[in-house]
Automatic annotation (TrEMBL):
It comes from Paraconexibacter algicola. Residues 37-191, 226-368 form the Sodium/calcium exchanger membrane region domain. It is a multi-pass membrane protein. InterPro entries: Alkaline_pH_Ca-Antiporter (IPR052946), NaCa_Exmemb (IPR004837). It is found in: Membrane. This is Ionic transporter y4hA. One of its GO terms (cellular component) is plasma membrane.
Length: 370
């Protein structure tokens, strides 16, 4: 987990320590502005560097606290920042952003269930013939994601209290409380009662040439510093993503894609840290950790975002449309079914990984060409 260093005077600082500070300053300086092309390009480069830095510090924290706490820290941290970004854009966007929460949360679910999970399984299977993981914990996580997605994204399409695909005030309050309860129960099961269900097993095929597997855990001071830099890097990612949001909207409009594609792009940017962290863990043979990241991120994205948006809707103008359309419901259903068939045996081949990546590509294509 050592990173190249930048020498400042007589002291060498890793670039992963410098980038979050620089990126956060850049996000603060450009907040609320409409910069030119050159600034947007530089901001995009900083955004990518901040994502890589976030992955590094997440791994440091994960190495200190161990699994499944490490995956939980990154998933929750990114989701909290994602919520802040959604609320900020909805406040500034008015009625045009009434579906932004739905589009972003659904995109996050598809990216994690199909994109990250599929990539993790494929990489693990390519390296070790089959990707092995704990079926009990992974199936529990997938079932929780399916329950939350149905409650928050599918039911609003069919309820009758409101004419559109939205909850009434009482229904939204119930969904928010139920989501928090389900997510809180899962965290208790994952970290306390059945923690062993979410730990890498002997069959995970962990490679022995990874320095991080043998290095001593960082000290409490180093872990706390990395935790602070992780949060700072994620704040910078969101700030710079918001800066790029107008350019993203212009790009979406220029290619004739629907407005919902904006939520897809936002979710792709925000979930980059999880994607890279999951890939690196899968490449090292820790497929269970990768699946913890994938499904934990999906769960946190729904279980924390919807309650936060429900509270924020008190001050937001316009409707809050959460219900998915028929195409999205079909995609969600087939993704859950294929996901269940993938995780229940406790091991998967390149076929299962490829199937999830195909579903992910279908989601991306239909997001651009509905």
């Amino acid at each position: 987990m050592n990173a190249p260093s930048l020498r400042l005077g007589s002291r060498a600082l890793p670039w992963t320590d410098v980038v979050p500070v620089v990126a956060a300053i850049a996000a603060a300086v450009t907040f609320g502005s409409k910069p030119g092309t050159l600034v947007l390009v530089l901001a995009g480069l900083l955004l990518g560097a901040a994502v890589l830095s976030a992955v590094h510090h997440a791994e440091v924290v994960a190495h200190r606290v161990g699994e499944p706490f490490g995956s939980l820290v990154l998933a929750v941290a990114v989701t909290v920042i994602e919520v802040a970004l959604i609320v900020t854009l909805m406040i500034s966007g008015g009625d045009e952003t009434s579906t932004l929460a739905r589009d972003t949360v659904f995109a996050a679910a598809m990216i994690t269930i199909n994109g990250i999970l599929g990539l993790s399984v494929l990489v693990g299977a390519l390296k070790h013939r089959t990707a092995s993981f704990n079926a009990e914990g992974t199936a529990t996580a997938l079932a929780t994601v399916a329950t939350l997605a149905t409650l928050c994204l599918v039911l609003p399409t069919f309820t009758e209290a409101e004419s559109g695909p939205e909850f009434s005030s009482s229904q939204l309050a119930f969904a928010a409380v139920a989501s928090l309860a389900v997510y809180g129960l899962f965290v208790f099961v994952q970290t306390v009662r059945h923690r062993d269900y979410f730990l890498p097993g002997d069959g995970d095929g962990v490679v022995a040439d990874d320095d991080g597997d043998h290095a001593a855990p960082p000290s409490d001071r180093e872990a706390l510093r990395s935790l602070g830099l992780l949060v700072l890097a994620l704040v910078a990612v969101v700030g710079l993503a918001k800066l790029e949001s107008s350019a993203i909207e212009d790009l979406v409009s220029s290619i004739g894609a629907p407005q919902s594609a904006v939520g897809v792009v936002i979710a792709l940017v925000v979930l980059l840290p999880e994607t890279l962290a999951a890939y690196r863990n899968a490449a090292r043979g820790r497929v269970q950790t990768s699946l913890n990241l994938a499904l934990g991120s999906a769960m946190a994205s729904i279980g924390l975002t919807i309650p936060a948006i429900a509270i924020a809707s008190i001050w937001l103008d316009g409707p809050l449309l959460l219900g998915l359309g028929s195409t999205e419901i079909v995609l969600l259903t087939i993704s859950v079914v294929v996901g269940a068939l993938t995780v229940l045996p406790g091991r998967a081949t390149v076929q299962e990984g490829a199937l999830h990546l195909v579903l992910f590509s279908v989601f991306l294509f239909l997001a651009l060409v509905p």
